[in-house]
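hiii so my PI (J.) wants the whole complex modelled not just the main chain, which honestly fair. so below is everything: two entries, each one labled with what it is. i double checked the lines twice but i was tired so who knows lol
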Amino acid sequence: MPPRTAYGFILGAAILWCGAILLAPALAAWEGAPRMLSAVLYRFFTPVCHQIDGRSFHLFGFPLAVCSRCSSIYIAFLAGTLLYPFVRDLRRPAMPSRTLLFVAVLPMVLDAGAAFLGICDATFLSRTLTGAFFGLLMPFFIVPAAIEGAGQLFSPQLQKGTPDA
Amino acid sequence: MPEKPNKLMPALYGGIIIGVISGIPFLNLVNCCCCAGVLLGGALAVFFYKNDLKAGMPLLTSGDAIELGALAGVIGAVIGSILTAGFLAGLGNVSGEAVMGFLERFRDQLPPGTLEQAEEKIREGGFSVLQLVMSLVVDTVFGLLGGLIGYAIFKPKPQMLNTQPPAVPPPQA
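here's the output for the full assembly
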């Protein structure tokens, strides 16, 4: 599979996922069928997030389908995916150091961990910022690995034996 | 060169981890944080597979990680749904009741309407075929992402890669 096609799939999936998160409250503002579809979308995201109203961004007076931390992760992931081709070459998928992966997740773990242990309370802003930081960096790991993997899975004779770019 | 090991067993181990985290009351709250349990299962499937690779076998690739993560997600969704149905039938929604008890203690600090909303969600908390289908979709996607994150963590170091010897230039005439 060409890198651009694989990238298109990831971008499309990220747009679809974020679109569904935003569509749930937008449809809830209508009567009839759109509201039923909205209920299905909210239900779809139930296993992924606690969906507590007080911890969520609101659109048209209704909460987004996931909480502020999750929303910022997914929307920042979409932003990072859009940014990716401007920062890295799609034809040469290369992952950053794994240290950056731990740097990406650390603020979120500290924020959530400190709140869970009662050391200090996570605020709306801290949840949003730490989530966005994690979400923005994730595409730099996911996109190259997915491009490389899709190349191996869909044209194995070309890519076999190139485990890392 | 010896062939790569079977992916089914590492994916099954990863799937069991996903299923146990998703299906056991209280433990399933881990998934409230962006399906962290499913991501973990997908990443661990890659780790188990990497441990099965012996010297001389082809190295771990991101294609392997995609297959392992997605397969672990599918297995995890099925195991998690069976466990959820079993616990709901045997014990009722104990996890939901415990969460309500926990939230009750912080009634004064919670935004208005939170308790009522949580209560409504817990009442809805049953098991259905629709839920299994949704779990299959969500767990497969997040298992796959977990597999890719696992690849980012456990990928072979550059010095371990098979490198071609440099081409010898043809003798000058």
